[in-house]
Amino acid sequence: MKTPKVEIITIGDEILIGQIVDTNSAWIAQELNKIGFEVFQITSVHDEEKQIIDALHAAMKHVDIVLMTGGLGPTNDDITKKTLCKYFNTKLIFDSSILENIKKVFASRPEFVINDLTRSQAFVPENCEVIQNTVGTAPIMWFEKDKKIIVSMPGVPYEMKEAMSREVMPKLQAYFKTPKIIHKTVQVFGYSESDLAIKIADWEKNLPENIHLAYLPNYGIVKLRLSGTSDNLLSLEFSLNQQIDALTLILGNAIVAYEDLPMEQVVAKLLLSQEKTVVTAESCTGGNIAHRFTSHSGSSNYFKGSVVAYDNEVKINLLGVSTDDLEKFGAVSQPVVEQMAAGVRRLLNADIAVATSGIAGPTGGSPEKPVGTVWIAACSEEKLVSKLFHFSNTREQNIERATQAALVMIKELL
Fold first, then answer.
1. 61 and 137: one domain?
2. Is the separation of the CB atoms in 163 and 81 below 8 Å?
3. What is the number of structural domains in the chain?
4. Which of 15, 201, 204, 382: CA 20 to 30 A from 133?
5. Same domain, yes or no, for 167 and 189?
6. Domain end residue (candidates: 120, 149, 175)
7. pLDDT band at 75; cut points 50, 70, 90
8. Statement to judge: residues 404 and 296 lie in one domain
9. Top-confidence residue, 2 or 296
């Protein structure tokens, strides 16, 4: 069965000058991949008629579906609708249903006034099928040409996501037949991407033809994503599970998760299932571990708080770290980080605590403790573990890799 191919075209000068980051394409690609569509190419163009039309002509030679985002606002620099009229050799017509939808969307906002610019949103190319925007003013436009589909959507992420989830993806699934696809993800800690590839080379070489492997490294964790296609989902599920069982025999405890979730959510599920709480004492990570936990709704059920102990006085006065140990071993040391973990667990009355102390860089290193040196400790009432890590010379990488390592240590303690 042929996999339908998609090109994503993002429209907007703001993307090409780096004013905003194109998160739309990444989200669309992930969601389409889940339901059996292949993203062939992602293209970004200026708000210019010729660039948009050239991109459409090029895309239609190679793909079955073109998904466009951006350029649908009411101002003069939003030219997508007029450009689509030229591409399809048609004209703009007024669609009263769009205006009624806009009134409905903003019915609860008395300050919102429909002016001429807002009213202009109700003009669409005559040959399109209108999909109403339930959270904004710009309509979604669906075109069919030579058994291929072009969809134009707003560039505002929450508007695009709502349209894709509610209408566009179901319509695409009804229009095209796609192979059944299942993804399974295994997260591995403690290997570089290249070392891991060498370790599992024989296993990878013997994967069935319908199962493909992708390596997705992310700050000390490598995700191995197995993607299988088949018309028989039960058989495919069984085959994927067999491969993961074989992988587990090779990697053992290096596998830290069997699901595609951020590590803080993997840890959160364990904390909730065991009815335990966690706290953090952070020096070099500066509250990043706490931020990761609290980025998710419901984190108050397991996360109690954090002490960002950047200065030694905070370590001493709040966490009970020994002055003598600080002077003898330095802040980046096993005794200090262990006392930080024990101190914050005691201070905030939690079941589990983790602490970090290191040299994030780019300054502050020494021959004995170069940039990237990080000590991490995790403790419960019964157990205390600590590890020394040597990361990179880049500050962001050191903070993120220390955060990942700390989360893995919490998981191991649970």
1. yes
2. no
3. 3
4. 15
5. no
6. 175
7. confident
8. yes
9. 296
One domain, residues 171 and 67: yes
- At 26-54, the pLDDT tens digits run 999 999 988 889 999 999 999 999 999 99
Name which of 26, 17, 13, 119 is nearest 70 in CA terms. 13
Report whether 373 contacts 357 (CB < 8 A).
no
Buried b (16+ CB within 10 A) or exposed e, 287-309: bbbbebbeeeeebeebbbbbbeb
Q: 284 and 327 in one domain?
A: yes
Percent of the chain at pLDDT exceeding 90 = 88
Kindly tell me the sign of the dihedral angle through the C-alpha atoms of 395, 398, 401, 404.
negative
Pick from 385, 313, 287: nearest CA to 342 = 385
Q: Residue 373 belongs to what domain range?
A: 263-413
Q: Is the pTM of this model over 0.85?
A: no
AA identity, residue 39: V
- Which two three-digit tokens encode residue 13? 């000068």
Is beta strand 5-11 parallel, antiparallel or unpaired with respect to 129-131? Answer: unpaired
How do 255-257 and 5-11 pair as beta strands? unpaired
Domain boundary among 175, 200, 232: 175
CA of 50: how far to CAs of 45, 56, 75, 358, in Å?
10, 10, 19, 53
SS (H, E, C) the chain: CCCCEEEEEEECHHHHCCCCCCHHHHHHHHHHHHCCCEEEEEEEECCCHHHHHHHHHHHHCCCCEEEEECCCCCCCCCCHHHHHHHHHCCCEEECHHHHHHHHHHCCCCCCCCCCHHHHHHHEEECCCEEECCCCCCCCEEEEEECCEEEEEECCCHHHHHHHHHHHHHHHHHHHCCCCEEEEEEEEEECCCHHHHHHHCHHHHHCCCCCEEEEEEEECCEEEEEEEEEECCHHHHHHHHHHHHHHHHHHHHHHEEECCCCCHHHHHHHHHHHHCCCEEEEECCCCCHHHHHHHCCCCHHHCEEEEEECCCHHHHHHCCCCCHHHHHHHCCCCHHHHHHHHHHHHHHHCCCEEEEEEECCCCCCCCCCCCCCEEEEEEECCCCEEEEEEECCCCHHHHHHHHHHHHHHHHHHHC
